[in-house]
Amino acid sequence: MRIMPCGDTALLLEVGSLPEVMSLHASLSAAGLPGLLDLVPAARTVLVRFDPQAVSAAGIRRRVERVSHLPEISGRWDTGGRELVEIAVRYDGPDLEAVGELTGLGAAGVVAAHTNQMWTVAFGGFSPGFGYLVGTDHRLHVRRRDTPRTSVPAGSVGLAGEFSGVYPRSSPGGWQLIGQTDAPLWDVDRDPPALLRPGVRVRFREPA
Amino acid sequence: MSLVVVRPGPLATVQDAGRFGHSAVGVGHAGAADRAAWRLANRLVGNDEAAAAVEITMGGFAVRATHPVTVALSGAACPVLVDGRPSRHVEAIRLDAGTLLELGVPERGLRSYLAVRGGIEVTPVLGSRSTDTMAGIGPAPLVAGASLPIGQALHQIPAADVVPLSLPGELTLRVLLGPRDDWFTLAAIDALLGQPWTVSADADRVGIRLQGAPLGRRRRDELPSEGCVRGALQVSGDGMPTMLLSDHPVTGGYPVIAVVTDVDTDHAAQARPGTTIRFRRR
Known about the structure:
The complex is a heterodimer.
Chain A: E1 2-5, E2 10-14, H1 18-30, E3 36-41, E4 45-50, H2 57-68, E5 84-88, H3 96-103, H4 106-115, E6 119-123, E7 132-134, E8 149-152, E9 156-160, E10 163-166, E11 171-173, E12 176-180, E13 201-205
Parallel strand pairs in A: 5-13
Antiparallel strand pairs in A: 1-2, 2-4, 3-4, 6-7, 6-13, 7-10, 8-11, 9-10, 9-12
Helix pairs in contact in A: 3-4
Chain B: E1 2-7, E2 11-15, H1 35-44, E3 53-57, E4 62-65, E5 69-75, E6 80-82, E7 85-87, E8 93-95, E9 100-103, E10 111-116, E11 147-149, E12 170-177, H2 186-194, E13 197-203, E14 207-211, E15 226-227, E16 232-235, E17 241-244, E18 251-252, E19 256-260, H3 262-268, E20 276-281
Parallel strand pairs in B: 12-20
Antiparallel strand pairs in B: 1-4, 1-11, 2-3, 3-10, 4-9, 5-8, 5-10, 6-7, 6-9, 12-19, 13-14, 13-20, 14-17, 15-18, 16-17, 16-19
């Protein structure tokens, strides 16, 4: 793990893989770090924001190093006992045929691969309630669209690189859209407001 | 009790300290852009420093009091009129019921804060009353006719407050290099610290885009998106830095060459287009 300064109120921790990020984030969340304001997991990094009035940069660095040396931080990640969310998807997205060709699975094969694997929310950050989901089946890895759409409708289910995701609200976006859901992804009046939070597991299914 | 907005000016929003702890689900901090000025306005009317106030961009704001209230202004100094009579910046102003408070355009600086005794008590969203202009969370930007409810006063109004206030025409901001300074050439580090930068017209609560000689990169590969902070100097593909401010996205995909110290980001929040900024290492 590499620890980099990020101004006088944060440290940026870089690791080698997404599973390591997820396990580091889980351990840091559970460690009760003093003066911690926020943790931001991303693809290869966890940003640790702290209150410099409550803890020094050197102090939080020592605590982070201690957490990261625990034996369970080794890229393994236990998904047992975590919340499971089911999301019903109408697989009629404008890029479904293209993804079928890119992957060689055909449209029906894409739907089967998307619904037959367990997804896990790795991190958020693109917009409120958006979760980057990682699966277990590598056949669905596809590149982004060459030209991003200026407006992707809320509820669109997409694929990009190693990730799947659902747009909580209408926004520009370059993901390959394979379907549409009515699942309530984001509601500020609900606790917690986000359906998809880091660590939550997700199963997609076709409507009954 | 409330204040009713008569004119919002170019942009007026309700701001407090911001919302924390929701980054992992994509919700940023928002909050007052110049936190020092926001805290000062609250102090002047005897509020808790965390009370919500109005952040006014480039003046032009007017409100009417429905009941007798005490208010104070801080940050960028605007000409102030109370029912047409000149009043003062950075001191408590008593408004009678029906009084109109009007702000002109500041000569220097960009953001002014209007605190009201008792604080503005719009409904909090995820623990904060701040408007996040990028994520669309919190109260909507203020429009004419908007009513701002006022809370209970907690403390005495201080008899006097030492109010140091200066907004220089040129800003020098302290930075710490990193986290991605190793993605840039040594010449780029020298250029960041050596040249004057100009605030472009592309400056809002999300970030301040700077103009100068471009910063060259040593690495050209894609950076996977990573968490970023207020004050980060994110360098886009054309070599120009953008300094992130209160409503910045939670993650960004451009390498951050250096980060402005937390205290100095308040000064940066007063930089209007055309302002010269210099960076020096802390």
